Amino acid sequence: MLNTKIIPPAPGAYSYPLLIKRLLLSGVRYAPANEIVYADKLRYSYQTLIERIHRLAHALTAAGVKAGDTVAMLDWDSHRYLECFFAVPMIGAVLHTVNIRLSPDQVLYTMNHAEDDLVLVHDDFLPLIEQIHPGLDTVKGYIRLTDDAAIGTELPVLGEYESLLSQAACHYDFPDFDENSVATLFYTTGTTGDPKGVYFTHRQLVLHTLNAVGTLGAHQSYALLRSDDVYMPITPMFHVHAWGVPYVATLMGIKQVYPGRYEPNSLVRLFREERVTFSHCVPTILQMILGCDEAAQTRFDGWKMLLGGSALTLAMAGQASARGISVYSGYGMSETCPMLCSTYLRGEALGQPMQAQLATRIKTGLPISMVDLKIVDASGQSVAHDGESLGEIVVRAPWLTQGYLKDPQKGAELWQGGWLHTGDLASIDPQGGVEIKDRIKDVIKTGGEWISSLELENLISEHASVTSVAVIGIADEQWGERPMALVVCEPGQYLDRKILEAHLQGFVERGRINKWAIPKQFKFVAEIPKTSVGKINKKLIRESVLS
Fold this sequence. Notes:
With 547 residues, the protein is an alpha/beta fold. The chain folds into three domains: 41-200, Rossmann fold, CATH 3.40.50.12780; 263-439, ANL, N-terminal domain (Rossmann fold, 3-Layer(aba) Sandwich), CATH 3.40.50; 444-546, GMP Synthetase, Chain A, domain 3 (2-Layer Sandwich), CATH 3.30.300.
């Protein structure tokens, strides 16, 4: 440790903790009349948002929630979720954003593991909670979230959300406390074992928010979210705080539109009626939007879309661009809060036609500020930044989770050698651009050579009759592994193995891939399995192929 110079603060100097409550100071100053919109059900101003957060804090404390307790949330993307993003951690409690797409057994496991004390539950999820309620060990009560007429339940309900807020005082004196206090908790699922608890502190969330303000708005080539934008998330709020953007939008005082349950046609209508300019989602959601009935009669000019979670193919980027959507790529993971990298267009690229920009826009991009990122080999040694050499992405940043809840062994594996290991295989070019080639567990090794499943998916998807595709490795006696592709065909079109082999042979002849990268098998399916957050579920695909 360096013997640096430290000057003691003056008597009475205030040590300013980085707490989530600080994020509420500016938005209402800048734009008090800007709106928070919940689907077609409700809208109110930033002034009202602040008041409702104060009322919610009173309602929670009246329900017995105290500092250090855990409050579970089961809701669609809503104004209520936004209010809980602030009120729960601001009273010193922990917000557990429950993944509503997990199985009942997994939801039960995560809620018991988190030791939830109070549960806020939308009426749509009452059947789920009623099913698992007898097995919940620590829950003391429930608050109902109702959009329409309330339905009956045997749960020990303490009250209905809006009713409780209406009875609460409109000012709450939020205390100061240690900025390293845990603010949020959610669970990420892997290929094996139980879901793992990922947690973030007030300090981490504030730093991630401040950094994202700069990342999303400061650079002319990446001006996704500025004061005159209208924001609508299409990434579930239970998943890494909707990528942290609700905190960013609230700090900036931007109009926010929360769509409720995701339904493609309603998303398109909200885009039109609320004049949405910025959203983020996984590619499968973008594909659903482009293919819905409302989209057929809608131009999407002015809609900036940040894509992450899985690879954005050139074909889909082209389809979105042709309809007016400006696509960008972002990269991160649950454990990284999540932002690590994003598309960055240098001056010369900005002057190119959009079609020429797409190859850059679908790449992983550059590490954002304050992210220390490198690629390493199996022994932990740094790999050359030549655009060809491959290594695992490892990172350091001030907002990365410091471990997994109650699982020190998994946490130590995550942080082996003092760097967070992402499990993603990538190259870095001489200009610092990162390009993910595959998950380490998904890369296909055939005859001693590595084949990127992501690259193959991208090339196959360029065929006009392909809607979506997933590539995995299957055992091969001669080569160890060979690729196999699951393909969904455009309605009314015809595809077979010979057509796609000929399509890929063209890339072999142009030197894009080697001939052994052409899949050994093609399976034509009606739908490709997805995870709870819309990513391609290769674990389930492998299980179905091997069964």
